[in-house]
Amino acid sequence: MTIENVIQRPVRSFVVRQGRMTPAQKEALEAAWPYFGLSLPPDSQFYDWQTVFQRDAKRVLEIGFGMGATLLSLAKSHPDIDFIGIEVHPPGIGRLLSCAKVMQLTNLKIFAMDAIEVLNRAIPDKSLDKVLLLFPDPWPKRKHHKRRIVQPEFVQLIARKLKSQGIFQLATDWQPYAEHMMSVMQASPDFCNVFGKEGYAPAGFERETTKFERRGEKLGHAIWDLVFQSKC
Ligand SMILES: C[S@@+](CC[C@H](N)C(=O)[O-])C[C@H]1O[C@@H](n2cnc3c(N)ncnc32)[C@H](O)[C@@H]1O
Fold first, then answer.
1. Measured in Å, how far apart are the chain's first and last C-alpha atoms?
2. Which residues line ligand 1 (CB under 6 A)?
3. Where does S-adenosyl-L-methionine bind (predicted)?
4. Total domains present in the chain
5. Distance CA 215, CA 139 (A)
């Protein structure tokens, strides 16, 4: 038995796939990280967003931004809003940084680590206007369902981080995951469904199309969007 077998590892919603990074992505990681990248603050001091962004603006968090196309497009088209992204996939982080640098975005910061840790250790309570969770890994096999990021504790954590009446938008192309999301969200005492009890939003409601969404559509999958508002 190795030490790895003995230490209890938390169940994570991702497996870090290395993938291939282009030279531009590698260079961007080094050059742009000091400007766009955030690490966990020391000694459980949460970030003060006004200091980070040098202004007080609305704040949107995207969890699992993938290759970053949606987040980049949002940040470019809404210069009046500040955006925070979280991702663990190195090529996606590299690609986002390389584009953000070229686009000279001043309203975007990212974390390259598990969203659960970032939410627990870096993001102050009641500091976000909106959280986007677009096409999270569906973990279709029953034995992997525990890896799905949408669980009651996760939803409780999101509720804590949202401002009063903040929005949590989720989307998936995997029907069983959509049903799971709906049952967890409906059961939460912290949220109400903007589209009525058990109601789905129109597909793509007020958001950009994502890479994984296009992939799902090519496979003939339907799209489910859920939009919930925090109650207090
Ligand atoms: C299926 S992809 C979707 C990417 C993108 N949102 C899209 O729609 O194209 C899910 C992404 O979530 C990321 N992810 C999963 N769990 C995460 C976690 N706990 N923290 C940060 N990123 C996570 C994965 O690395 C992956 O890139």
1. 48
2. 13-14, 63-66, 86-89, 92, 114-116, 134-137, 149, 210-213
3. 62, 87, 114, 137
4. 1
5. 16
